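call fold(seq) -> tokens
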Amino acid sequence: MTDKLTVSVLGTGIMGAAMARNLARAGHSVRAWNRTREKAEPLAADGAHIADTPAEAVRGADVVLTMLYDGGAALDVMRQATPGLRPGVVWAQSTTAGIEAVAELAGFAREHQLVFFDAPVLGTREPAEAGQLTVLAAGPVESRDAVAPVFDAVGARTMWIGEDAAAAGATRLKLVANSWVLAATAAAGEVLALAKGLGVDPQSFFDLIAGGPMDMAYLHAKAALILEDRLSPASFAVATAEKDARLIVAAGQRHGVRLDVAEAAAERLRRAGAQGHADEDMAAAYFASFDETTTPSS
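ret:
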């Protein structure tokens, strides 16, 4: 297999569209599909072929890359793609799907003789657009050269977790990483909300922790989105973050771990979504600290 591949990208939302663009820029032939075609059509300007169906998108592909909402969506779309799939095609599954869902997806891959990689990514809109994602990957050693050009095009680093993709080792690590992201985001929002409620200038808090062990770039990045009213376009939307938070809580429960912070973060995200912030950056969970009738503009 040459380094220039035909890659089918199924799902062209925030992450999938950026990944498709970087694949095209790397010289790969990209065939893109999205449930809402209008979201995929801008990729035509980057040289991608926009397919009407998943089956059309995967026909002739060397690698299929799925970046969909959840495991159920990924399985549904791959079932629709079945008429266009051929045995031996590499499937890089990058949806944050949950542990049990990955096992089900791996079962589908075995049934259709696909080479399956569990390959969620770490990063949001900006690193995705810059091709600077971290790919967390698990899959067979003998087929890694076939998928490496894809991972190299979308990411700055590939971290190999193991050979058994069905064991969901990569997804397990992704859930652990996202639990930290969600906790930090929730904490940033609550700090700003409390400061507002108590009449404290947030900059006083930032000055207090500046340069010390409690300071962190992520806090400043998420706080700026709130304070400067830059919650759209989202880097990681409230609705998607809530989905991930619930996957994390469920994974903990199944393994005997109670995750109070993740559970609270999921509820905060749900409230923010109900207030109309579902498509905004997950930092908009800040608004969940306030009653709907008194929600501040920033």
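The chain has a mean pLDDT of 96.
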